[in-house]
Amino acid sequence: MENTYTIQPIITSRLAIDKGTFTYRNFYGEKIMAPVYAWLVKGQGDPFLIDAGCSIEEAQRLSKVFLGEDDLPIEESLKNKGIEMPDIKTIILTHMHIDHFLNAKKFPNATIIVQEEELAFARNPHPVFAKSYNRDWYEGLNFETIHGDNTIFPGVEILYTPGHSPGTQSVSIATEQGKFVICGACSIDDSFSDAGDIVPGIHSDIFKAYDSMARLRELNATIIPLHSERTQGVESLP
Q1: Rounded to an integer, what is the distance from CA 47 to the centroid of its chain?
Q2: pLDDT (0 to 100) of residue 194
Q3: What is the share, in percent, of the chain residues with pLDDT greater than 70?
Q4: Cβ distance 200 to 187 under 8 Å?
Q5: Residue 200 has pLDDT above 70, yes or no
Q6: CA-to-CA distance for 4 and 123, rounded, in angstroms?
């Protein structure tokens, strides 16, 4: 029988941001407070994280574009769930933008799993993305690179879903209520709607971004957008 897991959304901060950042050619000018998550996944083995989130205060030291408000420090949020920082041995990064990786530096025992293509780009970004990546930011992190789809643990599959960034990856997790997929692209609930999917407003390849979203749609799974508002205050998925 396949291992099953629970997913606990941990809000680390909220970005004060234009909604159109997440929805290409839609909702520009509408300001939202987008939650920034670290997703705690628990099953039979060690707990692990999908993304690590960030604090706005620390993010602003690297890039002044980050505005918003902090939630509880991730150390405190995890402790409230019975998890100490050294307990986390694995962090799967959906991509390497500041709001998703920055707290990873706080986990002394963590191996950081990223796509090979994403890490290479982060260390030598195109000038268009110079404000989104800086090789100095990632010093000291223990990376493990993969290429394409990969099974990390029984019931936990990484899906290569590029387009938002060159090496964006999503994560499929087996639960007692079926598969849940954390969409690796910077997406919100409006990104996936009955009217059609909306690619992220920020993208390295808009066509790959669309194809990646279509791929997730074809799965028999519940899609969780990376900055979903509906998972705020939810203790556990499912």
Answers
A1: 16
A2: 85
A3: 100
A4: yes
A5: yes
A6: 35
What does the block give as tokens for 189? Answer: 């609930």
Q: What's the fold here for domain 6-224?
A: Metallo-beta-lactamase; Chain A (3.60.15)
Which tokens go with 4?
Answer: 């099953």
Alpha helix locations (H) across the chain? 56-62, 74-80, 98-101, 116-123, 206-218
Distance of CA 223 to the CA centre of its chain: 13
Per the CB < 8 A criterion, the answer to whether 51 and 64 are in contact is no
Distance CA 54, CA 130 (A): 19
DSSP 100-136: HHGGGGG-TT-EEEEEHHHHHHHHS--GGGTTT--GG
**What are 191's two structure tokens?**
């990104």
Residue spans of the domains in the chain: they are: 6-224
% pLDDT > 90, the chain? 94
Examine the pLDDT at 1 and tell me if it is beyond 70. Answer: no
